[in-house]
Amino acid sequence: MVSILRGAGLKNAAGRLLKSGIFRRLVNPEFGRATHVSNGAVCLDLSLANRLGDLVIHNFLIQQLESWGYSVHLAVSASFYRQLTDFFHNHCLTDRVLVLPAAGKGKAWLSFIGKVKKAKIRCVIVDQYPMVNPLAFYLAGVPMILGVEGTNTTFCSREYRLDKANTHYTQLVSSILHLLEPGVTRTNKHTIRPFFPFRPVTLPQLGRQGGHLLAVHMGGSNHWNRKWPLEKFVMLCQLYLDNHDGQLAFIGGKEEHATAESVKAILEANGGGEGRVFNYCGSDLNTTAAILSRCDVFLGNDSAPMHIANALNKRVIVIYGPSAYNAVNPRDYDPRNITVRLGLECIPCLDRECRLPDNKKLSCLKDLQVETLWDHLCSVLQPSLKTVIK
What we know:
Layout: H1 2-19, H2 21-27, E1 40-45, H3 52-67, E2 70-77, H4 78-83, H5 85-90, E3 97-100, H6 106-118, E4 121-126, H7 132-139, E5 144-146, H8 169-180, E6 213-217, H9 230-243, E7 247-250, H10 257-269, E8 277-279, H11 285-294, E9 297-301, H12 304-311, E10 315-319, H13 325-328, E11 338-340, H14 363-366, H15 370-381
Parallel strand pairs: 1-2, 1-4, 2-3, 4-5, 6-7, 6-9, 7-8, 9-10, 10-11
Helix pairs in contact: 3-8, 3-12, 9-15
């Protein structure tokens, strides 16, 4: 009797395997191609993301894809989820988050594959590495769109690729829809309505004196290749205080608080900054978003605060060096925004280290003049500001 039951169990298991997406994906890599997806659940795999800015701009994709009838899931690593739990609970436009297990935990990965199948995800948009993440979706029978142009994988049809490094997020939506629904004409439903939710925060210090509020981000976390020289920020902020009666609010991460505090002390010592300069670096995301929602202009480096300001429909003046300008230029969201960059042949290079000789390293940032940023700021805040530097 036991042997018969065992035989029946094996037969049932074999039958389930034959009917499953796992078997069909193994014998036919083209099973479940993205052309079969017309609506339903789409998953954006952010397992390679490690920055707040990535999450903010993916909010835009969530907003746009859901406007076309898709429900959007996010797949994120466990460490990234822990690091930015506040974002996922309070600022993300979807609560459908799949947390990827750590490498080496086989049972957890089997459970994850089960969650993917239960969520009825019809397509995942994924970068190639690490390989275990595409493999999990592959074994769940989910078709994939590869987000990195020019790479190869056994888990993705050759024609389903997106060049994410050179495609702006406003156009990435159309590219995704074209792959999901080939032959269907979609007009671009891009809108600049806000895509960063936050809870209101009381900020009694700001706006009491009238005038404009300028939000400034001088940092860029650990991205040394995205930072305009600090001394130039000091000069620009001093010009603002000398020529305008508004306020300055420094924003950024907690690791930038000490630097912002030293700049605040310099501005106050130079005169004109007393009671008008505020250091909010290290504040939570609700406070940072509240400051940005009240400011007249954001000025700073390519960073998460810039993306949040853009997501709140604020005027943005952003400084670009070697980073991915083609994919995240805020002017594509709103033509009122201003991007400041030099026309060097080597940018955007996306290199981890500048390839230029020592005497020219990061010329793309160091050679940007204070006068250039000042003129742009004046063009936004005229006629309140003078356009002649004292």
